């Protein structure tokens, strides 16, 4: 791992070793690395397998990076300040991760939809709340945004969390979406109507910087349509707007 606030995952591959990531996630690589892009990777065998990956917030196409003819190196950088965590995945150790959290994994990984629910137009832009299930047998690397706080929940112990702060948790943790009780909490609490309920046993990783929160914090610095602000503020807003467009895939 390189860097601190905006870390880079740099992986050295022996001849014949491979790493799988979503298409377009590459930062840099050496000349010994070859690329193969397909819908059949990461458990996406057949149309149905690829559809389940997309439904979980992943991409239709995955890219396989292989070292050929010698040792190679491939690197992936974080999109926003945060951390990249390594986890070992097998049938007894599966995880649910936030949409966009998957960085890469060895070739035995399987990505499918783990949880999906619409929460209304005011939450996640009306796109709903989606978690990816990380399964198979592989070593995987997950990006969590901001600082990472972990909890090891005891059996029956429940943690209620704003959905955007849910980064990753073991699949044995019981997960559900609950509503905030009390009409005053809904109208004046400022924390929205929905909370994620995570019940142990199992380990939970929370993230301090959900992307919707980052977008909300920056929106006041973006020029509005028809705003006749000065050139400097317009230029600054243009830079931030371009960054947000890259983050959220806006056209």
| Sequence of strands across the biggest β-sheet | 10-11-8-15-18-13
CA radius of gyration is 20 Å
CATH topology of the largest domain: Double-stranded beta-helix
N-to-C span: 32 Å
Uncertain segments of ≥5 residues (pLDDT<50)?
121-126, 228-251
Second CATH tier, the architecture of the largest domain: 4-Layer Sandwich
Report on the structure:
With 251 residues, the chain is α+β, with helices and mostly antiparallel strands. It has 2 domains: 8-209, Double-stranded beta-helix, CATH 3.60.160.10; 211-251, no CATH class. Helices cover 17% and strands 42% of the residues. The chain has 4 helices and 18 strands. The chain has helices at residues 46-55, 183-188, 211-218, 231-248, and strands spanning 8-13, 18-22, 28-29, 33-38, 62-67, 72-77, 82-89, 95-98, 102-105, 109-117, 129-136, 138-145, 148-153, 158-161, 166-170, 174-179, 194-199, 202-207. The strands form 5 sheets. It has a 6-stranded antiparallel β-sheet with strand order 10-11-8-15-18-13. Strands 1-6-3 form a 3-stranded antiparallel β-sheet, with no helix packed on it. The protein has a 3-stranded antiparallel β-sheet with strand order 2-5-4, with no helix packed on it. The two termini are 32 Å apart. Mean pLDDT is 80; it is low at 121-126 and 228-251.
């Amino acid at each position: 791992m390189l860097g601190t606030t905006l870390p880079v995952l740099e992986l050295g591959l022996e001849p014949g070793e491979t790493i799988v990531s979503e298409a377009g996630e590459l930062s840099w690589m050496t000349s010994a690395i070859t690329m193969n892009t397909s819908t059949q990777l990461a458990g996406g065998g057949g149309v149905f397998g690829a559809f389940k990956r997309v439904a979980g917030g992943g991409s239709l196409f995955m890219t396989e990076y292989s070292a050929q003819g010698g040792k190679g190196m491939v690197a992936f950088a974080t999109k926003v300040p945060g951390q990249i965590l390594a986890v070992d995945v097998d049938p007894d150790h599966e995880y649910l991760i936030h949409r966009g959290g998957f960085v890469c994994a060895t070739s035995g990984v399987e990505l499918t939809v783990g949880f999906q629910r619409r929460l209304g137009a005011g939450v996640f832009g009306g796109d709903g709340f989606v978690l990816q299930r990380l399964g198979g047998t592989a070593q995987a690397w997950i990006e969590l945004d901001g600082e990472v706080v972990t909890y090891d929940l005891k059996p029956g112990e429940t943690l209620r969390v704003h959905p955007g702060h849910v980064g990753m948790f073991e699949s044995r943790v019981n997960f559900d979406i609950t509503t905030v009780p009390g009409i005053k909490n809904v109208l004046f609490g400022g924390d929205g109507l929905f909370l994620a309920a995570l019940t142990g046993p199992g380990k939970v990783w929370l993230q301090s910087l959900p992307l919707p929160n980052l977008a909300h914090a920056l929106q006041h610095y973006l020029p509005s349509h028809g705003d006749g602000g000065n050139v400097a503020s317009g230029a600054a807003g243009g830079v931030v707007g371009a960054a947000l467009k890259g983050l959220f895939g806006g056209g």
